[in-house]
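Entry:
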Amino acid sequence: QVQVVESGGGLVQPGGYLRLSCTASGNIFDIDLMAWYRQTPGHQRELVAWNSRSSGTNYVESVRGRFFISRDNAKNTVDLQMNNLKSEDTASYLCKMVIKKTDRGIYTEYWGQGTQVTVSE
């Protein structure tokens, strides 16, 4: 059993900052991809920031220079530091991790439930 849980969302004014955290727990042998997505009602999920062995660290253009992803492999966590927040950043932010449960297992996607970020006066 593997669980992925996000935290840190909330209400913030434009120009403010917020730090999201995501933790994976359970049977974990290795995590390759750690990523943050965001989604608004009725819209497709957008890949915001991600890190993997093959791709390194990447950001969608709209958040480049403002958001920063960091991971701690020993703790199975990934954070998203969100600076200079804008109203258009308002969304539910979801964490995805690609996890191998055992040495002989396969890599599988695991998703968190999402944490709401609202940027408003």
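The chain has a mean pLDDT of 97.
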